[in-house]
Amino acid sequence: MKVERFTLVEFLFLVSILAILFSLISPSLKSIKHQSTLIHCKNNNKNLISGVLLYTEDFDGWLPVAAEFGTGITHGTMFWVYELRDYLNILASHTEQIVAKNTVTECPASEFDSLPPKYGGYGYNYAYLGYTVKHAFASRKNIRLSNNPKETITLSDSYSVKDVDEALLPWKFGYIYETTNSIAPYRRHVDSYNISWLDGHVSAMIWEEIALGKFSDVNWYFKLTK
């Protein structure tokens, strides 16, 4: 029985057709992956802000604070995760026991493998919602002070390691910085980043829009009381 075989020309023609097909579908696959990551991150943000609001209900309106008074390279950051641990199913007896991986505190697009395991890609609005209870200038804040919660950033994607030197500034990944104190734009998801707002909704915005603020106030979206 005679077996039909591809000639070299036919084989090369088939390879070229497959290469063309792959080049056509590759952008679509990348777009699908990007959208999937974005949705996953938004769901994480929704869980995080739900935890914050449940916390305020249990503690008479008081918001969690960003950090504890710590020393060393991490400066007691990610204390907000520790304060929300019961609402986020985080098992830790102090901040340095927090592990972000495979929890809602890990952004699927984060790149933090070389940082301490408590950093997962999300930061807290420390400047206006409470830095640490041991700093009088930034004591714990009450949600009742907010007169426009739908335009008040609570949590969001933090810096990308591509934008700042993670080896020198690991503690900066636990916060989000207001416009006037920002080191670099937030662009976790290509050109935008996900934000949890104090009224409980989550949205993706570009940094340039946030940095403009409103009513001539570049920090408008960060302030608890407008």
Provide a brief overview of the structure.
Helices cover 31% and strands 8% of the residues. It is an alpha+beta fold and 226 residues long.
3D structure, described in words:
The structure is a single chain. The chain is of the alpha+beta class. The protein has one domain (34-222). The chain is built from 5 helices and 4 strands, in the order H-H-H-E-H-E-E-E-H. The protein has helices at 8-58, 79-83, 85-88, 126-129, 207-212, and strands spanning 122-124, 153-157, 193-197, 202-205. Strands 1-2-3-4 form a 4-stranded antiparallel β-sheet. The protein starts with 7 loop residues before the first helix and ends in a 14-residue tail after the last helix. The relative contact order is 0.14. The mean pLDDT is 85.
Q: Compute the average pLDDT.
A: 85
Secondary-structure element string: HHHEHEEEH
Major sheet summary line: 4 strands, antiparallel
Based on CA atoms alone, the radius of gyration comes out at: 22 Å
The first-to-last residue Cα distance is 85 Å
Provide a count of the helices. Answer: 5
Structural class from helices and strands? Answer: alpha+beta
Number of DSSP strands?
4
Number of domains: 1
Indicate the low-confidence ranges by residue numbers: none
Strand order of the largest sheet: 1-2-3-4
Coarse shape: elongated
Helix content: 25-40%
Share in β-strands: 5-15%
